[in-house]
Amino acid sequence: MTHCPGCRWKDRPCVPGEGRTDADIVLVGRNPGSTEAEQGRPFIGPSGMLLDATLVEAGTAREDVYLTNAVLCQHVDEDGNDCDPPHEAFAICRDRLRAEIKSVDPKVVLALGGDAAQIIIQTDRKISDMQGAMMFVPDLGKYVIPTYHPAYIIRGAIGAFDDLLAVVKRARRISQGSIPLPDPNERYDIRYITDVQEAGETVANLILSGPATLALDTETKWLKDPDYEMLLVQISDGTTSWVIETSLLMDDPNFSLFQGLIEATDKTWVFHNAEFDLRQLWHN
Ligand code: SF4
Description:
By secondary structure, this protein is an alpha/beta fold. The protein is about 35% helix and about 20% strand. It has ten helices and eleven strands. It binds iron/sulfur cluster. Iron/sulfur cluster (SF4) binds next to helix 3.
């Protein structure tokens, strides 16, 4: 039982968080299902096994992180089958979740799935719009990275595994200190480019700017589009970020300029997911 005083679901089976209480990485799922409720542990069963394998692939392990859920109690429908908690449960449980995360005091929080991400970040944006973005949550005092829940991948969204793994790897590098966390009070120069001439000039200026370390990331709507349409290309030199609509770069002369920038020998590139991004860039 949850022993959550005053909560209408306080008599439901409860699965507390588990793991290192001083972990650098906290992972937050939605709520426990029947398997977790029976065993009293979070992330058990097929999605838990996938998460375990993902952690190992990223160079860490379940024992090195802290796992919990946005709602700790199991919810069932009239037939006794697992069901989604109502929004009210997420809202009621948020103070508990915030206190739990603060007590662990991690470097970064991974929100697995839309429900966890929305309640932690306090937004109604879809998980596909937030996946992989590092967002500072002021009342938590932590950076949160939303990504896909392993259960979503097991249900058939196999391609989402690349995103989940990339996010867990990034969290691992943050925990090791090899990716510094940005100052949440710092303001960044972000330029959103929707004009074909401006896109060409931006790429040309980057080519002419001389030796530089540049970061590149892409956004696709591949989950809905079997042709893997790429929507945005994002380039940053650490001070300024240029967000360019991909369609502006796909015809010459901009395409040749962009290819020249990618292949310029005086640039060092930092990719979010190099294999995926380059495959998608040349596919488009
Ligand atoms: S919704 Fe949250 S506060 Fe309410 S019983 Fe469940 S775990 Fe406790």
